[in-house]
Amino acid sequence: MPDYDQAYQEFNWKDVEKNFSWYETGKVNMAYEAIDRHAESWRKNKVALYYSDQNRDEKYTFRDLKLRSNQFGNVLRTIGVEKGDRVFLFMPRSPELYISLLGILKNGSIVGPLFEAFMEQAVRDRLENSDATTLITTKDLLPRVPYKELAHLNQIILVGEDELPDNTEDIKFYNYETEMKKASRDLEIEWVDREDGMILHYTSGSTGKPKGILHAHNAMIQHYQTAKWVLDLQEEDIYWCTADPGWVTGTSYGIFGPWLNGASNLIRGGRFSPEDWYLTIEKYGVTVWLSAPTAFRRLMSVGDNVSEEYDLSSLRHILSVGEPLNAEVVHWGMKVYKLRIHDHWWMTETGGIIIANYRSMEMKPGSMGKPFPGIEAAILDDAGNELPQGQMGKLCVKAGWPSMLRAVWKNEERFNQYFPVDGWFESGDLASMDEDGYFWFGGRDDDVIQTSGERVGPFEVESKLVEHPAVAEAAVIGKPDPVRGEIIKAFVALRDGYTKTDELQEELRLYVKQGLAAHAAPREIEIRDFLPKTRSGKIMRRVLKAWDLGLPTGDLSTMEE
Ligand code: 6R9
């Protein structure tokens, strides 16, 4: 990105549209722009996908992905899947997952990616609400799909399985490999309108069933430009986004953003381990690395001697998203990687990056950065008035950015609730903006604590706790109290080598008191082996709160085991 202030002033989304072939042809399809366009250019033999896990190690060029996704588009067409139909993916990361996803888009259908770890209720809720007709899954995961009870689901494609279950009146089974072999490599892509539905990501709130957030092909405008400027993708880069496609980060920046820019994209299957991750960076010579605070905190907690055993010198740019990135982690990153970790903020509903730290910009560790050019973000009060600098309020975005959600599936009322003030999208997060225009995260609106008349953002307290050498992770909640309204309670997971003692608990309390404020010091500290988290690494404060108070926990489908 050129100079931030200049870019912010001169930027126009309309100019970005000129980068797409539909600007001239009028024919729109995300998969075409992400893959085929490169496959038809000098990039055709460039590696688009490096895939590896414990058993596989493969490479696919843009041309390979074009032909294979053509084949899969033909498979879907042959079995009667139509434009606009919802086709879901429920499988571990594999090349087949990515090829299927592209084929679904080429067919003009709407793709719904699910985490492989989902259990039956989570799968049922999503397939039911979306009225999905077709599912791509594996034999291992099939027992978690209640397909006999799902009225709309009428076909299942099994990947990696030669013996198929018997077809019934309601459901037909297909084998991925068999169908692919029969399918032509030529496909007439289904050209769609830029406003047509493309992807449906389900996201859980604190109450009720998960909601289906719908994004349109038009989102590519934002995926392209944010990947260019925030991820800073260059031709020679080996880019690694560690997110699963069940999480929006794993599609917007694990698939669309990098491929729209013609980048080489690395996907590593299997589970997290510090050794495996560092070895992956070393082996592939990863240059741009996007991950989440939970991963960085875990890498931090195993000690610096682990990173020292690997050659990480290929890295040139590191990014983090999904949760507040404590300043402490940024400082640690500078020590261990000799690079800044660039925090940025967005959410499933925004479809793409909204606020970010850019390489060309001065960074304030602990801040999420500044709004992307072409985007207006503001801190508003309940009535929709802009709050003065430094004051904590509702983080809102001026409606109309290219990747804004287009609908909440079958729930217009919920969709409208995102826009309580005319023209503004309300994120549900609290934040403040400082005198230099940097945004600082304050917590989820529903997580804020009121203690003895003081408003305390849990994130501030958590960040302080994480600065203490004994603390790996912390989560802070407000606990009802007859005198103070609420008291602050902290849940803490310790770093390797520390043990739970009364002295340590008291030390942590004093540490917050002296470092932050007396009223912000937790009155209760509970040391736990682990903290409940979503699969995308977000600490689930509402679950801790429910456990603590003995209340129902609500929807747990996105929680890690
Ligand atoms: C991309 C993604 C969205 C919520 C969001 C906020 C939290 C995301 C953050 C962050 C602090 C950051 N969040 N990025 N909090 N600093 N840089 O995470 O989407 O899964 O929908 O979550 O995550 O609370 O509202 P999603």
UniProtKB/TrEMBL annotation:
Coiled-coil ranges per UniProt: none
Tell me which residues make up the AMP-binding enzyme C-terminal domain.
460-538
- Domain AMP-dependent synthetase/ligase, by residue range, is 36-398
Q: Name one GO biological process term.
A: acetyl-CoA biosynthetic process
* PROSITE patterns recorded: AMP_BINDING
Pfam families this protein is in?
AMP-binding, AMP-binding_C
Q: Give the similarity note.
A: Belongs to the ATP-dependent AMP-binding enzyme family.
Q: What is the name of this protein?
A: acetate--CoA ligase
